[in-house]
Every structure is written in structure tokens, then in C-alpha cells.
Design a protein that fits this description.
Blueprint: E1 2-3, E2 21-23, E3 26-28, E4 38-40, H1 41-52, E5 56-65, E6 72-82, E7 88-91, H2 93-96, E8 99-105, E9 111-120, E10 125-130, E11 155-160, E12 168-179, E13 190-193, E14 205-208, E15 213-220, E16 228-232, H3 233-246, E17 252-253, E18 256-259, E19 262-263, E20 268-269, E21 276-281, H4 286-289, E22 297-301, E23 304-305, H5 314-322, E24 330-336, E25 339-345, E26 348-349, E27 357-360, E28 365-369, H6 376-379, E29 386-391, H7 396-400, E30 407-411, E31 414-415, H8 419-431, E32 438-445, E33 448-455
Parallel strand pairs: 1-15
Antiparallel strand pairs: 2-3, 3-4, 5-6, 5-8, 6-7, 7-10, 8-9, 9-10, 11-12, 11-14, 12-13, 13-16, 14-15, 15-16, 17-26, 18-21, 19-20, 21-22, 22-23, 22-24, 24-25, 27-28, 28-29, 29-30, 30-31, 30-32, 32-33
């Protein structure tokens, strides 16, 4: 779980029903729908649970982590849900990110290793597949429902493996069907629910009373009440097909930062009823090359009208832009200072959205490549390069005064632009450690260059 941190069966959710009473598990729907006069709530929930619960997968992942200044292996638990008889299951990107081994426990007690078919950090979704023997037999699976049919107040169940327990189910309602989470809603809105979503529930299904997956449980809070968030099936459908085909989403990138016409959070309201506002354009981006400016109001792209009245409308606009054909000019109609004009923008492949990592033993630090999406502050100073990702305490790097987010310029005589450059410098230094155990490191810190002597004579792993 990350913390902040079909059709839906209408039996209990019809807004027109004036009175709902529950007596000993029976739900009375009054005279509005006599054919549904008395229904056993427990049976409906049990039937829906029985359709999906056998398809829930308990996922154990062995990961490599570099945050602490050295490469370490950690074991984490999460959830998944089977969606094909061939053993494909959905989970979260953050459940399997940096995984070197994935093991899964099924409802019937059998366990299998799994491989990652594809993943997408931007939507926090991943598609994996069990490594099944020929005699595995038929597996249970669950089908995707229609998250757009949900309404606030509809009952849902969150299934998964919270707190490392193999599986459980909790029940609640949909609190909000279109929740916008700043910083986490580039391509998708969220389903908010009060069904308990705890650590370990990530990747498990959010299920409606028809026994269909309407979301993938992803985020929750550790305190302040039961507030959880799930990725809606509307988003899942768009992503899974691409993950199955390409192993990734292949988003297109324009570099447009957008703002709704009625921006409540910033207390800014634009005098228009159509379009979306450009709040800024990224450095070296297609949008900036096209001459698009902040406060331009985009009204259409390739003839398709685009409007974001509120923040909840932004993800749909971003999805449209993200699916534009790469390296193919697109016609953008916009309004600037009251004048209508047309410009041409050529989207590029978004590419990797996080850098690669490397451990530097004996130096007691880890490094990572600068990525324009993950490290915008560092990318401002260095478009292509490597920075110190983690520093071990105590250790040689920390004793020398090297810090996290220092951008590496030179190590000894070696200019540093790639991880391969760091590997080479690291090997050269350790190859002659018997004769020399110091190296001069040039770094860029907050835009200022510093030269630091790294003495790696001491072996902190043995001390």
C-alpha cells in the first residue's frame, strides 16, 4: 500500500429509494421495487465475495534497494488478482518495482513463481504472470466491471493480503467516484472508499456486489479513519492491453503543464467555458519548442475539443495528449490574449520516468542517473548525469562530506555522465587500493561546484 502514504448491481444503491431498513441481514427496499422487496444482504455480499476471493493472489517480493547507501535485499508483501486462465494477474507497480524474485500463494494453497509482463509507474499498475507447470489445471479468475457505473454510497469490498496475512476481505462504500489527488492523478482519477485498505492490500481488487473488479487497491492512510484509494477499472482497461503488448505504456510527452479553468486550490478562475490553461511548459520540451506559453488556453488538439473545467477533468486531457502519435506533428488551436492561433507540436516518447541505480561498495554510497521527471531540481543543472542517491552512515562517503543529491562531475580523472563512467572510476580506484586509497571527487551542489577528497581506506563492513 502507498500512503498519502460489467455493471454494478443496483440492489442497494438506487438513489430513488427513500427508505432502506436492515433487519437481521435482510434489506427492505419498500414499495419502489416490489420485486426486490426483501434481499439478504449477507447472501449478496457472500456471492460477490465467492466470485472473486479465490482469484486473489498473495504476493511476496524480494527487492533490491539502494536508498540506504548500499545495495540491500528486502522482502515485501502485496496482493494481486488473477484475470486470465493462463495465470496473468494484476497488481501495483510499486508492489513489484525493483523485484528480483516474485512468489505467489493461491487460494487453494499452491504457490508459484511469477514473472513481470509489464509495468507503468505513472498509473502504478503492473501485469504479471504465474510460471505454471503443464498440469496446473484451471485457475480461478475475476472479470473487470465498469467503474464508471459506480455511485457514491455503493457497497464495495477490498480484498488482499493486509499486514502480510495471506488474504482477507473488508467491506465499505464508495466515498467518491472521481477523486483527484495532486501529484498522483496525471493519467487517472481515483476511487475513494472507506473499505479498509492497509499495507499489503496494494494490488488487490476492489469488488462490487456483482462480483466484478472495479478497481485495484493502491493507497491508504495509517491514521485518521478508513480512507483508501483504488485505481478504477476504466484506467485498468486502457493500461493492461498496452502492458500485455509492449511491456510498458509508451506514453507520449509534450511537456505541457495544465491548469483547469476553475482552479479552486490556487484560487484562480479564468473567464472561459471551454479549453484548458497552460500553467507552464517543461524545459527542452516539444511544447516549449512549439512556442506555447504560460496562460495560453488550448481549446483543441488535432480537431478534438479539450476542456478541463475543474481539476477532475485534467487526467482525461492528459491521457489524450499521452496517446498522441509520437514524432508526428499535432495541430494545437489555442487562445492567447484574446486571439485565436494555431501552432504545431511534435510529441516525443516519454521514455523512462525514473533513473537507474548503482551500488559503490567501499565508497559507501549509491548513485542514480538524473531523470527529468523524477529529479526536476537536478535536471535543471544537468540534463544528463549521475547524482549521489544514498549515503551510508557511518561510511567513507559520509565521512568525506559527500551528500545525497550531489551531482557527480568527475571522479579522479574520469568525467562522469553515465553509470558506466562511475563503474569504471570505481573499479580503477578499488584495483589500486593497496597503493592508494584516496580519490578527488568533483560535485555540483545547489549549483555550486565543490571538490571533495574521498578516503576509502577504512572497511566499514568489517569494522
Amino acid at each position: 500500500m502507498k500512503t498519502l502514504s460489467g455493471l454494478t448491481t443496483p440492489l442497494f444503491f438506487l438513489a430513488a429509494i427513500a427508505t432502506i431498513a436492515v433487519f437481521d441481514g435482510n434489506v427492505c427496499l419498500g414499495n419502489a421495487h416490489p420485486e426486490l422487496a426483501t434481499l439478504d444482504f449477507r447472501k449478496v455480499v457472500a456471492d460477490a465475495k465467492d466470485k472473486v476471493f479465490p482469484a486473489v493472489v498473495y504476493v511476496k517480493v524480494l527487492k533490491e534497494s539502494h536508498e540506504s547507501g548500499k545495495k540491500i535485499s528486502t522482502e515485501e508483501a502485496g496482493s494481486g488478482v488473477l484475470i486470465s486462465t493462463g495465470g496473468e494477474f494484476l497488481t501495483n507497480w510499486h508492489v513489484v518495482d525493483k523485484a528480483i524474485d516474485v512468489r505467489c500463494l493461491l487460494f487453494d494453497g499452491r504457490s508459484f513463481d511469477a514473472e513481470i509482463i509489464g509495468s507503468d509507474k505513472d498509473t502504478d499498475l503492473a501485469l504479471a504472470k504465474l510460471k505454471l507447470p503443464a498440469d496446473a489445471g484451471k485457475l480461478p479468475l475475476a472479470g473487470l466491471g465498469d467503474s464508471t457505473a459506480l455511485k457514491e454510497g455503493d457497497f464495495v469490498m477490498a480484498m488482499g493480503a493486509p499486514w502480510g496475512m495471506s488474504r482477507s476481505v473488508s467491506i465499505g462504500i464508495v466515498s467518491c467516484t472521481r477523486r483527484y489527488l495532486p501529484g498522483n492523478s496525471e493519467y487517472s482519477l481515483w476511487l475513494q472508499t472507506d473499505a479498509a485498505i492497509s499495507p499489503g492490500n496494494s494490488g488487490g481488487p476492489l469488488v462490487n456486489t456483482a462480483g466484478q473488479i472495479v478497481g485495484i487497491n493502491t493507497r491508504g492512510v495509517m491514521y485518521g479513519g478508513d480512507v483508501g484509494f483504488a485505481i478504477p477499472s476504466e484506467t485498468i482497461r486502457n493500461v493492461v492491453a498496452q502492458l500485455r503488448k509492449n511491456g510498458k505504456m509508451n506514453w507520449s510527452w509534450t511537456g505541457l503543464q495544465l491548469q483547469p479553468l476553475k482552479d479552486f486550490d490556487r484560487n484562480v478562475y479564468f473567464d472561459a467555458t471551454e479549453g484548458v490553461i497552460v500553467s507552464e511548459t517543461d524545459q527542452d520540451s516539444p511544447a516549449r519548442s512549439a512556442g506555447i506559453l504560460a496562460r495560453d488556453r488550448i481549446v483543441s488538439v488535432n480537431g478534438k475539443s479539450l476542456t478541463a473545467t475543474t481539476a477532475e477533468d485534467l487526467p482525461a486531457v492528459q491521457v489524450y495528449l499521452g496517446l498522441l502519435t509520437k514524432d508526428n506533428p499535432a495541430e494545437v488551436k489555442l487562445v492567447r490574449d484574446g486571439k485565436v492561433m494555431t501552432v504545431t507540436i511534435t510529441p516525443r516518447a516519454k521514455g523512462e520516468v525514473e533513473g537507474k541505480e548503482l551500488d559503490c561498495p567501499r565508497w559507501d554510497m549509491t548513485v542514480k542517473t538524473i531523470n527529468k521527471f523524477e529529479n526536476k531540481d537536478l535536471h535543471y543543472f544537468r540534463k544528463r548525469g549521475v547524482f549521489i542517491f544514498g549515503v551510508k552512515y557511518p561510511g567513507n562517503a559520509s565521512s568525506a562530506g559527500l551528500r545525497e543529491k550531489d551531482i557527480l562531475l568527475k571522479i579522479g580523472r574520469n568525467k562522469i555522465e553515465t553509470l558506466q563512467d562511475v563503474k569504471r572510476a570505481h573499479k580503477e580506484a578499488l584495483d589500486k587500493i593497496d597503493r592508494e586509497h584516496k580519490v578527488l571527487v568533483s560535485v555540483l551542489r545547489n549549483g555550486l561546484m565543490r571538490q571533495i577528497v574521498l578516503d576509502f581506506a577504512r572497511d566499514y563492513e568489517k569494522d
